[in-house]
Amino acid sequence: MSDSQQPAFSRRIFLQHGVAFVSMAATAPLFIQNSARGIINPWAALLSSQPGVPEDHVLVVVQLGGGNDGLNTVVPYGTDAYYKARPAIAIPQPGKTQGNQQGALKLDEKAGIGLHPNLSGLKELFDEGVASIIQGVGYPNPNRSHFTSMDIWHTADTGAHGHGWIGRYFDCTCNGTPEPEGEIAIGRDSPLAMQGQIQKPISFESPELFRWLGDDLSKDGALKQPYQDINRAGQLQGVDENSQLGFLTRTALDAQLASDRIRAAVAKRPLVQYPNSQLARQLQMVGAMIRDGMKTRVYYVSMGGFDTHANQVGSHANLMRQLGDALNAFHKDLKEQGNSGRVLTMCFSEFGRRVAQNASGGTDHGTAAPMYLMGDMVRPGLLGNMPSLSDLDQGDLKFNVDFRSVYAAVLEDWMGAPSDKVLGANFKKAKIMKA
Amino acid sequence: MPISNLKPLERDQFDYWKAVHLLNRAGFGGTPAQARALANMGLEEAVDYIVEYEEVAAPAVGADQFDKDIMRPANEEERMEVEQARRSGNEAALEKYRQERQMRQAEDRRQIGEMQKWWLKRMIETPRPLEEKMTLFWHGHFATGYRSIEDSYHMFQQNQFLRANATGSFAELVYGIVRDPAMLRYLNNDQNRKEKPNENLARELMELFTLGEGNLYTENDIKEGARALTGFNFEDDAFVFRPQMHDTGNKTILGQKGNWDGIDFCKIILSTRTPSEFICWKLYRYLVSDLPGDPDKDRQAFITKWARTFRDSNYQIKPLLKTLFKSDHFYDQANTAALIKNPIQLIVQAIRSLHTPARNLSALASAADLMGQNIFFPPSVKGWDGGRAWINTSTLFVRQNLLIYLLTGRRPESYEWEADGRDFDPIHLIAHLKEDAGEAAAQPTITDVVSYLLRFNLGAEPHDDRVKALVEFANANGGTVDRPMLIGLLSLIAAMPEYQLC
Questions:
Q1: Tens of pLDDT along A113-127?
Q2: Shortest CB distance from B491 goes to which of A217, A356, A358?
Q3: What is the pTM of this model?
Q4: At the top level of CATH, which class does the domain A53-423 belong to?
Q5: Beta-carbon neighbour count of residue A60 at 10 Å?
């Protein structure tokens, strides 16, 4: 073996067996040690942080794309106007049925508010005191375009301009260099919410794609070794590490290491059984990465199909079943891991739907809707007030909590960041955390 | 160090590899045969051929394939109908209108997807690569996003406008963009009226389009500029000036006082030196070097001198580009294989230079999106940051995997790209090596093939370690230069960090 191959060889051994850090340190330039350490030694940060110090706090964002029907999720069954507006699609009162449609699950009898019957998984978390619902969340001058309203939620800006709010959180706290593993999004698209000026998310749809597909081209793996040699060799001799090539080489190595880490983490069997849905699969991966001790602060998962314009009863019921059961399994997994106290899960949709059903047995784009939170740290129960169903704005609910005051609370009380700096304005924190 | 002045490259220095560089930077790369043809022309003629592209027959536009009326605004009669339904509380009718609108929106979203494919195809096939390269530059510069305007035909019109003026006069581009329906809508100038000025367009016109953030202008200039732009509006697909919305009072912009309108506002800006410096700096980052931070002393000196010619020629773009493409500076080693390819460049250059099948245009557009460059959907009016912002751990895998797709047609599962059975035959890439060696000579050696492929794809003399690694790979796998071997070599080359540069 020639001298020039030596470093690549020792790095390879190290990556495969997780030992030999010293031998790598002796041969690799400084910046490679840094990026490698950040990724390969995730426990270092956790071990050094004190309980309660935000470094080990994790945020999981669950996006419900398409505009979830808030009124058939958190059901105001004590309000006549609800049944008048939705004769064909309303959820019956608890204990009653309409055709195949079961009645709502009781949440707050006095207020006459319940949950969609298929949200038994979420109801269980409610009863356990680890879930909360923030009612009537929205923003001024609501936009009814999916694109624009989603961008508004992602940028925390009613003009839908600028970088994402989570990305800005990292930009504000990262001292000028991105966190290589700071935020991970699972899904086809890399969410705008996670795009900062400096910080960019790792995003992948399935861990099998977060790798080089050239490996599959030859059965005997003939390309695999040369590929790894190329991408893990580190800086070529004579290349300036501040050059574009220096930067690319560094990122290529980071990508290899992150790919190893993530694929190893999600390959492990979970501690609990997850249901079979897209959201459940995504949350299972998040659970695995948290359990594996990754340093990631924010995870982002998403579920679509909420744009229920027609014949929504059956399709919405399916969505509710998937959502409630997936959240339930995720919580049990975290609890089993002993991590339910350090993971806050937050669900949102870009808007709710109109109060009245439409002529096709569905609902059209609306405005305010509830948000859902989960974790040992949340102030459990129904938070805020159900918007009035009689005092409407052109057939739509009036919001009473600005979503940015929820972000502000998450940023300040959970992530330990100055919310005014991240959000670009001062929003009064919503009271969503246990005192 | 690249020299700090506009001195042209010595004629005899312009060879095959300089022609490859020119093809990459002034377009989206080319095959070995094209590079050789260009090299044979000599520097002057080659640059003129690329820049004076009107001499080359234009590809058909195919505008008739797009429906301009999908998002046509309601006419008086239709508006009355809706109004009447609303007043009489005719829910069924209102519901019908809502659904019709939603269907039209869905149809329009489909059409913008078609337009993405249309533009990509054009970039892949055009015999005038510089035209598309510069259209893409202006799309990122005068960035307008479909999401906010939701009218695909306006995006198409803007794209055609940018193409028609891509290498003409920058002044005409500025005058045109403040009258462009897509831009007027995107930056809310349709709401900019005398009683209630909207500063959005005025601000970006100075900050992003001409002067650069904080250069020369003040907040007050923005306010006054917004007043000048009042009444610049559009109706259906065309610009209209609405005198009743226009503020006819005196405005003071950059120290000049008068009853200015939007075009006067542009002229006042362009009468200063600042736009030439700002645009040249941006063009330099697009065509020469995108190193982060301020340019070093020599680069800055070059940009300053280059910008002076721009201002002196009254913002003519063609001479500006000719000066650049003929300059010694442009071909300097420090400026070769040093620019991070934007996602479109990565895709189109791979197809044009290797001559792979284009596979599936939807897949390519979706790959570009995954890599961070969704054409017609720039992330904001600032366009794409470019340079290092293109690269992160996720996009790097997509970049590498996209090349596997182009080279092999292999469908990466769940990228939702279709598998593509067409074979790519890479033999043409090395055919001339044999010719060069002469009839009598032996076949080119593995080392010859590897070295050539590396240099052709990476745009620079390959590093010894890379040559060695690929020769070892080739020898370990039979050592015969056939199609599978070439595809294996190209797959590995495309996975090198330096492949992301051009």
A1: 999 999 999 999 999
A2: A217
A3: 0.82
A4: alpha beta
A5: 24
